[in-house]
Specification:
Keywords: Membrane, Transmembrane, Transmembrane helix. Residues 20-34 have a biased composition (Pro residues). Residues 1-72 are annotated as: Disordered. The chain crosses the membrane at residues 81-104, 116-147. The chain has 164 residues and is an all-alpha fold. It has a domain at 77-153. It contains four helices and no strands.
Length: 164
């Protein structure tokens, strides 16, 4: 059996797919305007222009307010450093901070999209470092408290026996 372009396109047709539907704006009846009446021809004199009839304007009806169609957000115009900032905020927060600041700088200069993404990467990265710093100080305090408690317990014991 020979494969031809017609047979290939037959296989790719999805019989369940609906054709894309375009939104149809509502149809309003056309305004009814009376037919313009012809004025009696006037006599023109030499050196005088003939009077011109002014076109009658159709009555203007207010147009209904339709919301503007939404535009899909794409990543092709989003700053790459901003995307790297939010990704690296979870993997390597220091790199997330660096790329976040570089992304904000580029966004400010070039006007790229992605300011919110860069700020989110920076906030997550800085929050990670604050969490690590708080955890470190709490851990150091825990260790100091542990050794001081052990020192207090060991103060009353001696290797030479029990003293009153």
């Amino acid at each position: 059996m020979e494969i031809t372009p017609d047979r290939i396109s037959e296989r790719r047709v999805n019989v369940y797919a609906q054709p894309p539907q375009q939104p149809v704006p509502p149809q309003y009846p056309a305004p009814q305007t009376p037919a313009p009446q012809q004025a009696a021809p006037q006599q023109s004199f030499p050196g005088q222009q003939a009077p011109q009839a002014y076109p009658q304007q159709a009555a203007q009806y207010p147009q209904p307010n339709h919301p503007a169609p939404s535009t899909a957000t794409t990543l092709d115009k989003t700053n790459t450093f901003a995307l790297l900032s939010i990704i690296l905020a979870f993997i390597a927060p220091l790199a997330g901070i660096v790329f976040g600041h570089m992304g904000l700088s580029q966004i400010k200069k070039k006007g790229d999209a992605g300011r919110g993404i860069a700020l989110t990467g920076l906030i997550i990265s800085y929050a990670y470092f604050v969490f690590v710093a708080v955890f470190f100080f709490v851990w150091i305090g825990f260790v100091v408290t542990l050794f001081s408690s052990l020192g207090g317990l060991m103060n009353g014991y001696s290797d030479y026996g029990y003293y009153n």
